[in-house]
Amino acid sequence: xxxxxxxxxxxxxxxxxxxxxxxxxxxxxxxxxxxxxxxxxxxxxxxxxxxxxxxxxxxxxxxxxxxxxxxxxxxxxxxxxxxxxxxxxxxxxxxxxxxxxxxxxxxxxxxxxxxxxxxxxxxxxxxxxxxxxxxxxxxxxxxxxxxxxxxxxxxxxxxxxxxxxxxxxxxxxxxxxxxxxxxxxxxxxxxxxxxxxxxxxxxxxxxxxxxxxxxxxxxxxxxxxxxxxxxxxxxxxxxxxxxxxxxxxxxxxxxxxxxxxxxxxxxxxxxxxxxxxxxxxxxxxxxxxxxxxxxxxxxxxxxxxxxxxxxxxxxxxxxxxxxxxxxxxxxxxxxxxxxxxxxxxxxxxxxxxxxxxxxxxxxxxxxxxxxxxxxxxxxxxxxxxxxxxxxxxxxxxxxxxxxxxxxxxxxxxxxxxxxxxxxxxxxxxxxxxxxxxxxxxxxxxxxxxxxxxxxxxxxxxxxxxxxxxxxxxxxxxxxxxxxxxxxxxxxxxxxxxxxxxxxxxxxxxxxxxxxx
Length: 516
Ligand SMILES: C[S@@+](CC[C@H](N)C(=O)[O-])C[C@H]1O[C@@H](n2cnc3c(N)ncnc32)[C@H](O)[C@@H]1O
Description:
Helices cover 28% and strands 23% of the residues. By secondary structure, the chain is an alpha/beta fold.
């Protein structure tokens, strides 16, 4: 008999034939013998087309521990989990699955036992497993049938009710089995209006990783703009099915194209805001799998780029009513002073560049370390000027006439949570300064804006997103979005009963390059 591999002309034909055999349930050993390929080859192929490693498709998994050890709910806007979490049936086998610490925190903060949680990008069922462990009902769908198959296997474990924390008003609950099915997040006809208590989901990041081998409905096949258009259908459905005053948490990351950043996170926030949601919290999720030493350190400096090391977890809320929250504040006046900043000198040991998009700096030298990194990395030795917003200052401006490599705009007044009018005035002034000063920044030079989110009333004003929306000059390309955090302080995990909100502990540096 002729070897089928010889008859199939192309690699693609071979792969299609193998996928068809797999779909018919032919064992890997037979496929390997028939097509002359290794088990590893089959596994790689399935992983590519279905998002799952073949070895993951075991029927039962051993469960060592049902709950994470020493778990504490997050209290600030920076969430950082050094271990991804492998309690219950969680593991990293599904491509791009999220750490179970994320849905666990969201579920505990924004729902009660017995309530209904929806995850419309179920993947391997991380949210569904957490719902089962925490006594929440869960509906989870995914366009990928293999993901749902895996999610069913992952949800197939017993919860020891006596050892669990499944209580509601003192009544012990039984764990609810999650309802898992193949479906499309853009269309949720099986859910009534205002019927869901919490949405907790993790979409593809446009077309970075494909999850299926079919373009039919899989959002991971869409380029950024079309992906956002499709996500606006998801956001509309989310708004319809969620109960008023309840939350919708979405994890999303930025993308890089030609050494510049595409702010997919901020763009997706706009999509959900346009659907009618308000922003309750904007959490930064740190990623710990970034290499920051040796080769990466040298390349990061040589080619002047930072490794993406954070994602965003916006937590939206469907407002009770659609009336605006506050109106009629008069414009506050914020002036600026220049130049205030001498290039800081630091002890040799501390004199190192940051190489990822998350800069964690010690409280003591925080401002000096931040300034030094910005000035040394982005002024190219070609001079710099700084502009610092000062609340209600009457100082005149006297901007330098010389060309410079870096314009650095700082806004420490945001730390005292200004009014909506103060924020609008700040954005307007920032735009004016950039327009006025840009001709004095040399081509190839940088504009860096240090900013931070502020809470106004019940909601968050995402200032970095608003600055990115406001700066529209074609000659400025967004090169990096950096998150700056002070090293973890003992206060970070202190739980206060009065704290209805997360403490905002991060700032941003928006780094623009002048390209012409
Ligand atoms: C980032 S993964 C989710 C991972 C999941 N949080 C986990 O922990 O396993 C994104 C998922 O979205 C699914 N997906 C893509 N387009 C979809 C659509 N239109 N409706 C529902 N799911 C979709 C993909 O199949 C993929 O499983």
